[in-house]
Amino acid sequence: MAKVYLEINLKIDDADRAAAAGICNQYKQSFLNTIKGATSKELLIRDEDVQVLHGFESIEDAQNYLSKFPFCK
């Protein structure tokens, strides 16, 4: 079970939300198989945004994953 969650909020038009869900599902297993400490990946579709919750075993694993994206610094 995940001990740490990394939440990413995305502003996605209503018309594109099904495609976003498809992309999340397409890459979920790859994320779980290749990212150190990854334990889960869930998509929450809300009226105001879409949230992707990434579960990790530790905060260090979450920080290492996030550090791979220069636009998140």
Q: If you had to describe this structure to a student in words, what would you say it looks like?
A:
There is one protein chain. The chain is α+β, with helices and mostly antiparallel strands. The chain has a single domain (4-72), classed as Alpha-Beta Plaits (2-Layer Sandwich), CATH 3.30.70. 36% of the residues lie in helices and 30% in strands. It contains two helices and three strands; from the N terminus they run βαββα. It has helices at residues 17-34, 59-66, and strands at 4-10, 38-45, 50-56. It has a three-stranded antiparallel β-sheet with strand order 1-3-2. Strand 2 and strand 3 (50-56) form a beta hairpin. The mean pLDDT is 88.
CATH topology name: Alpha-Beta Plaits
Beta-strand content bin: 25-35%
Distance between the termini: 27 Å
The number of distinct helices, counting runs of at least 4 residues, comes to 2
CATH class: Alpha Beta
Our count of domains comes out at: 1
Strand neighbour order, sheet with most strands: 1-3-2
Name the helix and strand elements from N-terminus to C-terminus, one letter apiece.
Answer: EHEEH
Oligomer: single chain
How does the helix and strand content classify structurally? alpha+beta
**What is the number of strand segments?**
3
Helix content bin:
25-40%
As residue ranges, the low-confidence spans are: none
Major sheet: 3 strands, antiparallel
CA-atom Rg in angstroms: 12 Å
**What's the mean pLDDT score?**
88
Broad shape: globular
- For the record, the CATH architecture stands as 2-Layer Sandwich
